[in-house]
Amino acid sequence: ESDTASEISFQCNKHKKSPSVGSHSSDMASVSSVSGSVLSVYSGDFGSVDAQGTVEFALDYDEKNREFQVHVSQCKDLAVVDEKKGRSDPYVKTYLLPDKARMGKRKTSVKKRTVNPIYNEVLRYKIEKMVLLIQKLNLSVWHNDPLGRNSFLGEIEVDLASWDWSNRKLNWYPLKPRSLSAVNGVDHRGVMNLSIKYVPPGSLGPKNPPSGEVHIWVKDVKDLLQLRPSGVDSFVKCYVLPDTSKKSYQKTRVIKRDTNPVFNHTIVYDGFHTEDLKDACVELTVWDHEKLTNHFLGGIRLGLGTGLSYGISVDWMDSTQEEVAFWQEMMSAANEWIEGWLPLRSL
């Protein structure tokens, strides 16, 4: 399987254990940085210049080729980034939201030394019309920096569900500061219903279990992003970080054509000492299954959210308040199932 997320790990030889027969073992031998963040819509320099000026563009949908087209014509009166040289090197970038992981970005060429660039370029997306109508178009203008620190010059966001598709003419639109959706991240990704339980070593009798166990019961997910008219073919992956080995990796079956899939799948990880719970993190991610590439839909991370694992700073120990409270309740209630609904997010 190929997924649109990267995995980077390094060894620290900490708490190495042998797997138990008949269970899925969590080997705490490696500390890993798992990034579920695919393409960032909002990476760059905000606030260095004030958004100003206008952009001229037109939208169209080619029914025959099933293609969404953004005709970017030109911009006027953009902000000047390099005041000493009196120059900006602008380009236009587009995303379809909230599905940035699947569709990726499109961008025009860079026009140098101008605040009135002329592009006359068409940015194209192969996408079904029904799917397009649940998206938003984010069109932003940027100054291209040779060192990679591009500067934000303004943007406009279009709700495609309410767009007048009979309007194919070029029109001017004022560029605005960074939008609310940029501040709050992508739209609602759905919620996961699950239960978790910690069984301390020896709590069920002498040497039963021989080591601590974390039980994860993935019940169902509601309101997943619908990537195709037929729905979405989803499955859930699970790791207990910092371990990203094959022994840590578990997944559910694929539920086809359903934005509200019921998995009813239980995963058991053994090899836990009670003190491991403060340094470990259960990462559950939901993916759309396709033959060539699986697409990230959203996920949760259950842990203490301290930013540290075994004394090492890691970016995946970033649990939200809800996720932290869920994990803490499990730690304080041994041998009891803790149930709840948690919102999926971009990791």
TrEMBL record:
Its main location: membrane. Coiled coil: none annotated. InterPro entries: C2_dom, C2_domain_sf, SYTL1-5_C2B. Pfam families: C2. The keyword Ion transport does not apply. It is found in: Cell membrane. Residues 1-12 have a biased composition (Polar residues). GO terms for cellular component: exocytic vesicle; plasma membrane. Keywords: Cell membrane, Exocytosis, Membrane, Repeat. GO terms for molecular function: neurexin family protein binding. Residues 1-27 are annotated as: Disordered. SUPFAM superfamilies: C2 domain (Calcium/lipid-binding domain, CaLB) (SSF49562). GO terms for biological process: exocytosis. Gene3D superfamilies: C2 domain. Residues 51-173, 188-317 form the C2 domain. This is Synaptotagmin-like protein 2.
